Amino acid sequence: MNISAIIFYAISALILGAGILAVTSVKIFRSAIWLLFSLIGIAALYFWMQVEFIAAIQIVVYVGGIVILIIFSIFLTQQSGKDLPKPTLSKTVFSALAALFGIAFTFNLINHYGFDNISATPFNASVNEIGIQMLSTSSHGFILPFEVVSMLLLASMIGCIVIAMKTSTSDATPLNNKED
Amino acid sequence: MNEIPLTHILFVSTALFFIGMYGLFTRRNIITMLMSIELMLNSVNINFVAFNKYLFPDKLDGIFFSLFIITIAAAEAAVAIAIIINLYRSHNSIDVDDATEMKF
């Protein structure tokens, strides 16, 4: 049990504890903050696995983008001090049973699979390698999904604007009198 | 680094996935359900990176899958929040129990 193993178990405890609190907290704003800590723990796990580029992307996109977006939508749509309605007891019990059964089943499968842990070659995931393979046009390059995902981002951006745009027709007057 | 076997990382990601599933089953608020889905997507990303690092260290395919999953999750979250804002404008509530027009 050296220091690396201790760090791994500490990061895992952070991820799982913050995740459990994020799905069980009764205040929605606290739930979002616990989700933030869980995502930071996942970024720390990527740093521990020495894939620094994915860890940086995780922090930039999830912690800096998605959680902020979620917090903004909480502010826009909800009284953040109000408690969430508690789920009924039967729903809680059956959901917990389903989750525990799934965890036990998958743990059993993983435990008996027996991965051959032969990784003699060192793992090289530097930004240099990732960038070269990302934009390579050879048979192992990822230039086509790279371009397709840029079209997806453009489409989703325009779609968001169209969906969330306020329609200013004369017959459908909005409920609140905010001028925007 | 090498004392931690691959299975322990898989245990963590499995537990995180089922925590997200529990949240998706119990919550009735769309924003918290979206947060549970984010947890599940992140557990999948951990799996991809761990498999790539431990089993196929000479390739980078798992890294690329993680990158594209993160990108698509960002697009999905943006569209979902636009839908949430539109739903709140028309129903004044973002509980899934209040939006039952399309329920058969």
What does the model show?
The complex is a heterodimer of chains A (180) and B (104). Chain A is mostly helical and 180 residues long. Helices cover 69% and strands 0% of the residues of chain A. Chain A has helices spanning 3-24, 28-48, 52-77, 89-113, 127-134, 143-164. Chain B is mostly helical and 104 residues long. Chain B has one domain (6-91): Helix Hairpins (Orthogonal Bundle), CATH 1.10.287.3510. In chain B, helix 2 (30-54) packs antiparallel against helix 3. Chain B is elongated, with a radius of gyration of 17 Å. At the A-B interface, helix 1, helix 2, helix 3, helix 4 and helix 5 of A face helix 1, helix 2 and helix 3 of B.
Topology summary:
The complex is a heterodimer of chains A (180) and B (104).
Chain A: H1 3-24, H2 28-48, H3 52-77, H4 89-113, H5 127-134, H6 143-164
Helix pairs in contact in A: 1-2, 2-3
Chain B: H1 6-26, H2 30-54, H3 61-91
How would you name the CATH homologous superfamily of the largest domain in chain A? NADH-ubiquinone/plastoquinone oxidoreductase chain 6, subunit NuoJ
What is the distance, rounded to the nearest whole angstrom, between the alpha carbons of the first and last residues of chain B? 53 Å
Shape of chain B: elongated
Structural domain tally of chain A: 2
- The CATH architecture designation of the largest domain in chain A is Up-down Bundle
Question: Which structural category fits the helices and strands of chain A?
Answer: mainly alpha
Indicate how many domains the architecture of chain B comprises.
Answer: 1
Q: CATH top level of chain B?
A: Mainly Alpha
Q: What's the total count of β strands of chain A?
A: 0
Q: Would you tell me which CATH topology of the largest domain in chain A applies?
A: Four Helix Bundle (Hemerythrin (Met), subunit A)
Output the number of helix runs of chain B.
Answer: 3
Oligomer: heterodimer
The average pLDDT score of chain A comes to 86
Q: Note the total helix count of chain A.
A: 6
Order of helices and strands of chain B: HHH
Q: From the alpha-carbon coordinates, what is the Rg of chain B to the nearest angstrom?
A: 17 Å
Structural class of chain B: mainly alpha
End-to-end distance of chain A? 60 Å
Major beta-sheet overview of chain B? none
